[in-house]
Design brief:
binds flavin mononucleotide, globular, NADH Oxidase, FMN, 5,6-dimethylbenzimidazole synthase, four-stranded antiparallel β-sheet, alpha+beta
């Protein structure tokens, strides 16, 4: 599969997991792709916690359901009605969660390139996630990013050390198919915008 095909086919997967747990060798290749991401000062500030314990998956799914409700409660009635049928995770169905963490202390005090833009560390960890996501597509594996969580809750759940941030819970599992359009578009929550609206020449 070409990189362009993987980029085109990739979706945030919530409902299409088959329940078949991803094989360890496939998971290893996907994590290896993540670990090859570029990073500021070559700091590689990420770690990956692989979660397969059914009890932990269920506990996290319960927490996410609570947070989903907190968000739903903030919505005006028309948006709440649109949001209602939208699935926001496949934590249990995917069978595997990967918690991606960010360690700002990785690389020591003199991270080359991070002096003026502190966020370059987090940017680096997010690039690892994108590598993982695209590699998963090439393996026929679905990934769904879940961000409806309290950071402290997730840190406690998977024993993330103090000073290290969990920046994503990724649901990773075999899929029957990839949808051709984003769920949020299909369910009328928000459509994408044309490329030409995002590209600017010379000045913003
Ligand atoms: C930082 C980040 C957080 C996200 N959090 C969630 C989430 O909590 N639940 C969810 O269903 N999708 C989540 N998504 C997926 C987006 O909704 C999805 O990428 C977007 O709607 C475009 O769809 P596509 O990825 O299928 O192209 C997240 C994506 C990103 C990049």
């Amino acid at each position: 599969m070409s990189v362009y095909d993987a980029i085109r086919i990739r979706r945030d997967v919530r409902a299409e997991y088959t329940g078949e747990v991803v094989a360890d060798d496939v998971l290893r290749r996907i994590l290896d792709a993540a670990h090859r991401a570029p990073s500021v000062g070559n700091s590689q500030p990420w770690d990956f916690v692989v979660v397969r314990d059914k009890g932990v998956l269920a506990t996290f799914a319960g927490h996410v359901a609570e947070q989903r409700q907190v968000f739903a409660d903030t919505l005006p009635p028309d948006r709440a009605a649109t949001f209602d049928p939208i699935k926001i995770d496949g934590i249990v169905e995917s069978g595997t969660g990967i918690v991606v963490t960010y360690d700002h202390a990785r690389g020591g005090r003199h991270v080359l390139g991070r002096q003026t833009v502190a966020d370059t560390g987090v940017f680096s960890a997010v690039l690892a996630i994108q590598n993982l996501w695209l590699a998963a597509v090439a393996e026929g594996v679905g990934v769904g990013w879940v961000s409806f969580y309290d950071e402290r809750f997730l840190s406690d759940l998977v024993a993330v050390p103090a000073g290290v941030r969990p920046i994503a819970w990724l649901c990773v599992g075999s899929v029957a198919e990839f949808q051709t359009a984003p769920d949020l578009e299909r369910f009328g929550w928000r459509a994408g915008r044309p490329l030409d609206d995002a590209v600017h020449w010379e000045q913003f």
